[in-house]
Task: inverse folding
């Protein structure tokens, strides 16, 4: 299946987006709904056996160095500051709001950070609709 998927992606003969990956995968995979019960059975658990029963992930990079970098959008941080002006965002908020953008030298000069992640200036626009789950994501103006 993996080889077929790669061949179909190659046949598109264009720069790929996440949606291309998903569409081609769905075209060869017959899964219409993810089985969460099965996934939970297969999940790896950490902590005290037979006591915590919770699976955990640890923060870290999922890819090696490449062509993108994580950022927090300025408008998201501004919204946080309006609702909680005396608190810094916690790790859960940061992970939920971080987006990846293609690296450009000007981004490496952004000094404002939250949780170690650069805050993007207004040079970045974000196109994603939570209801339809569609959009192009973050990109440079």
Result:
């Amino acid at each position: 299946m993996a080889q077929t998927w790669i061949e179909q992606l190659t046949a598109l003969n264009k720069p790929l987006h996440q949606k291309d990956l998903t569409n081609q995968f769905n075209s060869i995979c017959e899964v219409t709904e993810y089985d969460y019960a099965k996934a939970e059975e297969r999940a790896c658990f950490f902590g005290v056996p037979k006591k915590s029963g919770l699976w955990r992930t640890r923060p870290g990079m999922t890819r090696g160095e490449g062509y993108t970098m994580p950022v927090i959008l300025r408008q998201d941080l501004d919204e946080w500051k309006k609702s909680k002006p005396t608190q810094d965002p916690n790790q859960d908020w940061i992970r939920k709001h971080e987006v990846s953008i293609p690296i450009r030298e000007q981004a490496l000069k952004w000094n404002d950070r939250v949780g170690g992640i650069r805050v993007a200036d207004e040079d970045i626009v974000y196109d994603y609709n939570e209801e339809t789950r569609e959009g192009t994501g973050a990109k440079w103006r």
The two ends are 37 Å apart (CA to CA). DSSP finds five helices and six strands in the chain. The first helix runs from residue 2 to 12.
